[in-house]
Amino acid sequence: SAVISQKPSRDICQRGTSLTIQCQVDSQVTMMFWYRQQPGQSLTLIATANQGSEATYESGFVIDKFPISRPNLTFSTLTVSNMSPEDSSIYLCSVERESSGANVLTFGAGSRLTVL
Amino acid sequence: GQQLNQSPQSMFIQEGEDVSMNCTSSSIFNTWLWYKQDPGEGPVLLIALYKAGELTSNGRLTAQFGITRKDSFLNISASIPSDVGIYFCAGLLYGNKLVFGAGTILRVKS
Known about the structure:
The structure holds 2 protein chains of 2 kinds. By secondary structure, chain A is mainly β. Chain A is built from no helices and 11 strands.
């Protein structure tokens, strides 16, 4: 199964700054997914990161706020731009892995951001 | 958008008791997944269900994919302290898009 490493694991950020989260996978994957988990909430898909093309964003999320890079098949970054306290969340990277002949999502440990 | 209704929102049970939680939706899903999230960690897949009516076990965990494909339940038998955490159901829509339930917080009294 894929091992996913995220950095930073947590950070405290000042309002108005930007932070880039890195996601490294130990095997090549076609698609990588970025999720947000607001405090006490469930997971919401931000975007799908495809290698060699622009990320596909879900409704309510835009590239200017959450730019994503996918330079190769094992790495992606998510930037949270011009942060406000409402951006305080856990940001999770995920990839598909095979389970019983089907693909299911595996998650990294997440990056917990607190914006002051 | 698609929504999953997960219940209960939280549970506080005695060690050794059985636990049941479920998810329902107005939409049909092709796959149901159950995840557990421990504090400071990402969700970990517990059980995946691929066929309507399917009943699958993983140790003390049992989950079923509803016949109508609009619901699923997860049972935990003989709960132990390490079962504490947040349990999420998730339904797979088209492609790779997962929709998550709001989660069930499980607390176990020793």
